Amino acid sequence: MSQSTKLKSFFVETGAISKFTGWFFHEFLRPRFEAREFLRQCYIVGYKSLPLVGLTGFIMGLVLTMQLRPTLVNYGVEARLPDMVSLSLIREIGPVITALIFAGKIGSSIGAELGSMRVTEQIDAMEVSGTNPYKYLVVTRVWATTLMLPILTILSDTIGLYGGYLGINIRGVMSMDLYVNEVLHTVGFSDLLPATIKTFFFGFAVGLVGCYKGYNSKKGTEGVGLSANSAVVLSSILIFIIDLVVVQITDLLGFN
Amino acid sequence: MDASQNTIISAKDTDNEPVLAVRGLKKAFGANVVLNDFDLTVNKNESVVVLGRSGSGKSVLIKCIIGLLEPDAGSVSVLGQDVLSLDHEGLDHIRMRIGFLFQSNALYDSMTVRENLEFPMRRHLKHMSAADAEQRIKEVLSNVGLGHTIDMMPAELSGGMQKRIALARTLVLKPEIILYDEPTSGLDPITGREISTLMVEVEKKYHTASIIISHDMRCVKITADRIVVLIDGRAYATGTYEELKRSTDEKVKQFFE
Amino acid sequence: MAKQIINNIKLGIFVIAGLIILVTSLYMIGRNQSYFGNNITVRARFTNVMGLTKGNNVRFSGIQAGNVKSVHIVNDSVIEVAMLVEREFQPYIHKNAIVSIGNEGLMGNKVINISTNPIPAPAVENDDLLPVKKEVGTNEMLETLSTTNDNVAVISQDLKQTIKRLNNSAALWNLLNDTSISYNLKISLLNIRSAAVKVNQVATGLNTIVVDAHNGKGTVGTLLADTAVATDLKQAVNHINGASAEADAVIARLDSLIGGIQKDVNNGSGTVYTLLKDTATTNKLTNSLDNIEKGTAAFNEDMEALKHNFLTRRYFRKQEKAKKEAGK
Q1: Across the interface, do B104 and A120 touch by the CB < 8 Å criterion?
Q2: pLDDT interval class at B11 (50, 70, 90)
Q3: DSSP B81
Q4: Edge-to-edge, what's the strand order for the sheet holding C78-86?
Q5: What is the ipTM of this complex?
Q6: In a domain, C79, yes or no
Q7: How close B241 gets to chain A, by Cα (Å)?
Q8: Among residues 220-249 of chain A, which lie with CB inside 8 Å of chain C?
Q9: Distance of alpha carbon A83 from alpha carbon A70, whole angstroms
């Protein structure tokens, strides 16, 4: 593929995704609301992802603490360990790692699910059955990912902070009370709120990209695999881009 | 499906009342013109087979009829309404009266057989009571001979059974026209014949007209009242099975060899 | 259907758990940062807030009491800091409590310390302006340390020169080394003292004789009854009187001489003082000078180490640069 064709296809893709996003905003507030499907998706996307997200969150908290410890001990500021762990977890690592895991699990499954529905004409069948498949499949899933990822992130942060507490107590001693106090003392609204707000965007990106890739899947089983794969890749990249944009905005607004 | 399995119904009581008319339909994908000035009329209770080679645009035709694809030119009139000029709501309304059997069955694989059959009913027949719906589902399932599969998942069923469930799903809304997209593709000859016979049976039972897209001559022979041969995007030849079999045209003869 | 309901219940628990954690943590953080609840505002004016910002902690006698609400400039030399302080601290903070800006640890955040003033005053009220104390910052501390170092360097230089001069002065060393001089002086002083005592004794004896004679007692009395003898005797006594007066004058002069020496010794001045001191003193003096020299060397080393310490490196580099520029 020549350079110009690649460039062209990049812009075509960008345009198509924008249009798809526009479609979402066109549809998402109009009846009919597929409440049952939305709840089902929330259950799958949110509740079913909790064990995975919780595990990674716990490990991140534990590992981060153990990795930071030697440096802090060198500088003689071991007591600042809860501050460092909580800030890095809540501001950056929690949201981003959770979103990436989420993209890997949910983005790919949405991409594959809608892809195979497209390939086996289930989406057409839905349309024929008097259902707007965009509303039934896309709007519900994008809403579910947008609303569930923040909750997953909060739970993951909490579990991660508990991991951090255990990490401190592997080598040193710190009471739970002191740890919680230190964490609450360190973390401010300006840390928690932007971090929570950006997870909505992460969730939106994961859901939308997964749906876009699946909805526009090419024929054949290869197309389904490709949809799942590119959904994960693209949503992971978008997560970082959104992260970059959010950090700039919060910086501009003076929350940093 | 037991009694009339081997009965070949060559001609039904077809009134000359058209339920579906396609005029001058054109559809091209880029440079690939698949339909070019295609005309087709289907009368009440008539089964028309559109015969054509793979990739000749047969599926495109019925997708244009049901509004899944938009033709470049031409008109599609179904049950007296112009499909192309309908808004979303009108389209939904007309779709309720048209059954569509997809080539790949398109059963929702995250739902049980019951939910698959419920799905179009929930959408189209919103005021139907749960008991009536249940009753309708059981009736339709027994008509396709698969009453026992009601709580199974589509993945647990064989290809032939899936096809029957898909047919049952098109039947729950009691359509007036059924569009079949390659109903016997991917099935072994015996199952293919079973499905073909079942199609004839249910059409009789539900008084439906149908368009059958196929290139499987066994199926065509069983199901067709009339055959339209689609070549180069046009209705190249038309006639009954027997008439076309006697045709001397090279292109038509190919299908019957 | 039943499964769907169970799933929805699980989903509900999941969502509510997340929301509760979010709301609770927001509330706890808010309470920690005194966004809600019962607070009073107190103000203080500084000329330099040294990087204090909104949200920094406020401590009362070391207890977390609130945080900084705002920092704003009143005019070119006055910066007003408003602090939110929990109301429960209000009765303990008096109107004359002293506000200062300090550090949380050596490199930590700035913190406001409110410390009590021993002079009694009424409790603080909302929007009161509290007096401030200038807190020594690390920078100033380092600057003072540098000046001290310079001074020590000058002193040790002077001391070195003095010692060199002392070492090179042969006359002084001879004087200090010749112990016989001081010994002789001591002996002569002792002799003068004993001579003076003897003269005194003679004078006392003569006085007794004269008194007895006056009363006609003893042989001298008998002899004095005779007027001729008495006249002679009177003359003799007069002579004796003159001699004793002379002796008195000698003694007085000696006394003043000794007193002068004593004074010199006590005040630590005059050559005698130096001479009287023995060689051990000079040794001690040399030793202590050595010690000072060692001490300054160690101090120099410390300063050198401080220069290379990462914390202060930049400061010293700046100093050096400035010095170089000044040299140019």
Answers
A1: yes
A2: very low
A3: E
A4: C98-103, C110-115, C57-60, C63-75, C78-86, C39-46, C128-130
A5: 0.81
A6: yes
A7: 30
A8: none
A9: 15
- Contacting residues of A for B96, CB less than 8 Å apart: 130
Nearest to C32 by CA among C57, C52, C51, C53: C57
Q: Which residues of chain C have pLDDT under 50?
A: none
CB contact under 8 A, B92 and A121: no
pTM higher than 0.80 for the full model?
no
Whether residues C173 and C273 fall in one domain: yes
B6 band by pLDDT with thresholds 50, 70 and 90: very low
Of residues B168 and C33, which shows the higher confidence score?
B168
| Alpha helix ranges (H) inside C83-124 | none
pLDDT tens string B133-145: 888 888 888 888 8
Q: How many angstroms away from the CA of C4 is the closest CA of chain A?
A: 8
- In a domain? residue B19: no
Range of the domain at C120: 36-135
Q: Do A189 and C33 touch (CB under 8 A)?
A: yes
pLDDT score for B9: 40
CA distance linking residue A206 with residue A111, whole number of Å: 10
- Largest Cα–Cα separation, chain A: 69
A234 with A111: CB under 8 angstroms? no
B195, B199, B205, B206 alpha-carbon torsion, rounded to 10°: 130
pLDDT tens across C139-169, in order?
667 777 788 888 888 888 888 888 787 777 7
**Does the beta carbon of A39 lie under 8 angstroms from any beta carbon of chain C?**
yes
* CATH number of the domain enclosing B204: 3.40.50.300
Task: Specify the pLDDT at position A238.
Answer: 95
Regarding whether C186 and C128 lie in a shared domain, the answer is no
Domain-embedded: residue B128? yes
CB-CB neighbours of C260 under 10 Å: 12
Structural domain count, chain C: 2
Q: Is the pLDDT of residue A96 over 80?
A: yes
Query: Does residue C142 sit within a domain?
Result: no
The SS3 of residue C242 is helix
Would you say residue C161 lies in a domain? no
Question: What DSSP state is assigned to residue B115?
Answer: H
Which residue in B95, B104, B108 is closest to A128 by CB distance?
Answer: B95
Tell me, yes or no, whether C78 lies in a domain: yes
DSSP bridge pairs for B229: B51, B237
* Residues of chain B contacting residue A125, judged by C-beta atoms under 8 Å apart: 100, 102, 106, 108
Residues of A in contact with C35 (CB under 8 A): 189
For chain B, the domain total comes to 1
Q: Among A100-114, A183-197, A241-255, C142-156, which stretch is predicted with the lowest mean pLDDT?
A: C142-156
The answer to whether position B12 is within a domain reads no
Q: Does the residue B23 lie in any domain? A: no
- C73-89 pLDDT tens trace: 988 888 899 988 888 88
Closest CA to C300 of C138, C164, C157: C157
User: CB–CB of B113/B141 below 8 Å?
Assistant: yes
